[in-house]
């Protein structure tokens, strides 16, 4: 049975991802107010996606459809890699870089994922390891929790280090090992061990409040740190200590109330398509609005308008072109 609440929250989180990539990460508005979102609440989006994937992967293994699952994910990755090939043009335009260096950067981008597509290679690697370790994950939940906690903390510390050295190479920590495994395994743990859900029943509201407070405090601390660091390449944290806690609590709340519908039953399709396609739509919308603004002589908030247009266009496409979009996701 489908959980409508999970799909609805995925859609909401997909919109937050569009907002961050559209304008929030570069907005000059009060950094600390925005930081609560960009270094806090909104950073629970991708962990939530991984948790959902891990939870559903338990059923995939149980139904013996892992080959079908992997072939589908790989096909989706190939499709979107081709669509986002235009993003690789920036590599070809790098000055003072040899042909071999450019070829290396293109291959690395395809392996680690162009733009937001890093999620898919991370998902494939994580699911494969989960398949190999499934019995250990199910039978040794405490050891698994310690293991994934170490991985996530290592990822956060690497993220912190890359802010200090002002490096754009986020693939060193934002990957299947440090990001995907911890969150995916949490979802798989919840699906394979009923006692986890039973242990938190009656405590979820208190845990949600606590996780929101921790997220707010941590987001302010990271915002101050990034502002003081003077980093040019990194303007927010991809990984935070509180994100796994908040995303897990939200997921457990979704399991408790599975019937909340946000978009007439199209939440799952729309959220997935929005995550994969939003950079493409943002680029196109920004370009159109830029030329319209230049032609008319009217100054408009380009990035903000492009973000709104992107969300509306994607939702509209999902209503009118469901069959086509299903082939893409």
From TrEMBL:
Entries under PANTHER family matching the protein: O-ACETYLTRANSFERASE WECH
Residues covered by the Acyltransferase domain: 4-315
GO molecular function, one term: O-acetyltransferase activity
Record keywords: Acyltransferase, Cell membrane, Membrane, Transferase, Transmembrane, Transmembrane helix
Main location (coarse class): membrane
Subcellular location: Cell membrane
Family: Belongs to the acyltransferase 3 family.
GO-annotated cellular components: plasma membrane
Name this polypeptide is given: Acyltransferase family protein
Family annotation (Pfam families): Acyl_transf_3
Source organism superkingdom: Bacteria
Record flagged with keyword Glycoprotein: no
InterPro entries: Acyl_transf_3_dom
UniProt GO BP: enterobacterial common antigen biosynthetic process
Membrane topology: Multi-pass membrane protein
Record-annotated membrane-spanning stretches: 12-29, 41-61, 73-94, 114-133, 145-165, 177-200, 207-225, 245-266, 273-293, 305-321
